[in-house]
Design goal:
Order of helices and strands: HEEEEHEEHHHEEE
Oligomer: single chain
Distance between the termini: 29 Å
Radius of gyration: 20 Å
Domain Pyridoxamine 5'-phosphate oxidase N-terminal: 44-157
Number of helices: 5
Number of strands: 9
Structural class: alpha+beta
EC number: 1.4.3.5
Cofactor: FMN
Pfam family, one: PNP_phzG_C
Largest sheet: 9 strands, antiparallel
Shape: globular
Enzyme class: oxidoreductase
């Protein structure tokens, strides 16, 4: 057995106080996101964990890249026929989480996922490099395949087929917009007395702000 009980760290880099937060969690997320980006410690600031409830009844989490956020919510892109796509189709309740170790911060977002418009998906797909476009076409994400060679050979066929041609977005590939219902901000503090501030969406489009015990 690997005993990790002595792995400890004192969190002392910042604080999260009600006197210094906006009324809207998206504004605070924007502030934190760019502070982490400016800090320069995280390789991919937009890397987030997406958790879904699978068709087998088990939760499953995986890391994907956030591609846009606004007052409407958070957008990422994937294969709609993938395991997470099928899970979202059956149960659109999802959780997004960001862990920015360098600044001792975490954000957890509970929300409802829905497909973006075809226009939004088309515009993003068109902005991708050709290699990424072909990767989206060739990969039947989450399906069992015989080998990596199988993927590589199919990619070569597609490269020849689309040489000098526009690559259309597959109908089963596109974006999800996650509309937040609850957003929790976690700031590491000394002695495990961490700051936890939770925003909960209200029917009048305002947010209730509460402090949680660490």
């Amino acid at each position: 057995m690997n005993d990790l009980s002595n792995y400890r760290k004192s969190y002392e880099k910042s604080e999260l106080l009600e006197s210094n937060i906006p009324e809207d969690p998206i504004n605070l997320f924007n502030r934190w996101f760019h502070e982490v980006e400016d800090f320069g410690g995280s390789g991919e600031v937009n890397a987030m964990t997406v958790s879904t409830i699978g068709l087998d009844g088990f939760p499953k989490s995986r890391v994907v890249l956030l591609k846009k956020f606004s007052e409407e919510g958070f957008i990422f892109y994937t294969n709609y026929n993938s395991e997470k796509g099928k899970a979202i189709e059956a149960n659109p309740n999802v959780c997004l989480s960001f862990f920015w170790q360098e600044m001792e911060r975490q954000v957890i977002i509970k929300g409802i996922a829905q497909k973006t418009s075809e226009l939004i998906s088309d515009n993003y797909f068109d902005s991708r490099p050709d290699g990424s476009k072909l990767g989206a076409v060739v990969s039947h994400q989450s399906e069992v395949i015989p080998s990596r060679t199988f993927l590589e050979e199919n990619l070569k066929k597609l490269e020849a087929e689309f040489e000098g041609k526009a690559i259309p977005r597959p109908e089963n590939w596109g974006g999800y917009l996650v509309t937040p219902l609850q957003v929790e901000f976690w700031q590491g503090r000394p002695n495990r007395l961490h700051d936890r501030i939770r925003y909960t969406s209200q029917s009048d489009f305002s947010w209730t702000i509460e402090r949680l015990s660490s």
